[in-house]
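Researcher: Here's my situation. A collaborator sent me these components and asked whether they could plausibly form a single complex. I don't have experimental data yet, so a predicted model of the whole assembly would be a useful starting point for our discussion.
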Amino acid sequence: MSRRVSRRPPAVALVLAGLALATFLVAPLLGLLERAPWRELPGLLGEPEVRTALRLSFVCSLSATALSVVLGVPLAWVLARTRFPGQNVVRALVLIPMVLPPVVGGVALLLAFGRRGLVGQWLDQWFGVRLPFTTPGVILAETFVAMPFLVITVEAALRSLDPRYEEAGATLGASRWTVFRRVTLPMIGPSLLAGAVLTWARALGEFGATITFAGNFEGRTQTMPLAVFLALETNPPAAIALSLVLLAVSVTVLAVVGSRVLARPRDRHVGAAAVSL
Amino acid sequence: MSLDAHVGVRLGSLDLDVELRAEPGALVVIAGPNGAGKTTLLRVLAGIQPLDAGQVTLDGDCLDDPGRGRFVPPERRSVGVVFQDLLLFPHLSARENVAFGLRARGLARGEARRRADDWLGRVGLAGSARARPGELSGGQAQRVALARALAGDPRLLLLDEPLAALDATLRVETRRELRRHLDSYAGVRVLVTHDPIEAMALAARLVIVEQGRVVQQGSPADVRSRPRSRYVADLVGVNLLRGRGTGGTVALDAGGVLTAADRAPLDEPVLVVVHPRAVSLHRRAPEGSPRNVWETRVEGVDDEGERMRIQLGLPIPMVAEVTPAAAHELTLGAGVAVWASVKATEIAVYPA
């Protein structure tokens, strides 16, 4: 080799990058794919417990996503479009479930909505509603963990939307609600969709908060991640089969969100012209 | 039907305090430098920006009066606004943009569409009803914005720099067209611009706003003949000097004396207007009738094609306009010493 200056990246970086790829991406995926009981797969996925877990997972994660949209979009709007004291504290609070260990989240939910919990005792006394160890409890746990993904995505979109479009709507005689429905929502649509997909993916994979708050009851609170964990002890091929389903879902989500985010900057008239006085 | 507003708003460094009256049928143009408060004024009239002090009355209806705790939000004002960068809804077609206000005011979908198509036809865009704003040219988008603002049959039409988004070639044609649509509209119209040509071409009455205050108003001809500020003088392209009258002459504040045919009021502050065309330049001291002759230096030369604007330095800084041939003959360039002369009859003097 000549001694001329190499333009190639340093060997150390290459080795570490390769190690990262191999250890954390290729090996686990290969492991999963290599051990997958491909031939028995249809049978395994047809088993009643598996189908029950699958159905429960989809019902709960979609409900959690819907709940996150219904509650999270207004929350994002308030954070982006209004000024109030302590706003930054609220914004930080919204993010807590993203960084909190899910098990801790589950414990916190138990202390709040458990039968003796801060809110839970009144729910029980007044309405006879008990959330822990029920399907609605699963939805609650998943919403708790996943909603921040929706809120931060939608809030960012609202912030980058020029508020003068909403003002233009108002001068055309549209009420606030009409402006929101016909101007704001369509203009942040792609971000809302991306946020909802991320939220759904997070809810679908939720484990810690769910098992802590809602337990692991087949047909009632045993979602796919819980079923995978349990099956690993009793029926490893089923665990692998379930994992493959979750993997397929994740990859699909990544493809959808990725293409959405990349394809977005069409027709965006944002920010450029701030109000000239 | 008329608009009567006293607008007091404090917003950051802007302190706006402007009285504005507008009658239907006469386009009021508000002109002023950037940052003067023009757009804020329009936002107040539209109801987007609430007043801090004053009141806005349209046809006797009070729209905003903080003193009496009254504020009518934009959606209940019956205003039409053409925004500076149009703000057409990018996710809606041209037709849906125009129909938006009609739908919001409770018209059935079919009827709103029919009227929107009718409006698009009037602005010559019948064929583009289904196009999104992103697919329209600048001129087409401008016409959609105008149709959208007019479709609701507003009592008050506000236009914020309506031609600013267009390139120069489109502007003349679109301005003519805009004028036609404005003439056929019966309500009160207020247009904001910083473009002198637009202001002069469209205005029935011109209101000049600088730093949040009205500095001058009147017909374009009035404003042109008696500018009251540097901005207005630049707007109409004349030299404006300040001084004090001393009978037949004016002692300029910046030094120097000019003789005018008009008698300047004795010892009163006056404004002096000299048209650049009235300033003659010579290589040697001229002998002749002009009362005002002084020696100066060329500070800069702006080539504007068929004419050259020569910036003259002390003792009396002003602009002279000459033909390129004359500039060439006199070899005018920065630093060249010249003699300037102006006839006393070409100098207009009026009280400041």
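Model: Some features of this prediction you could bring to your collaborator: DSSP finds nine helices and 21 strands in chain B. The mean pLDDT of chain B is 84.
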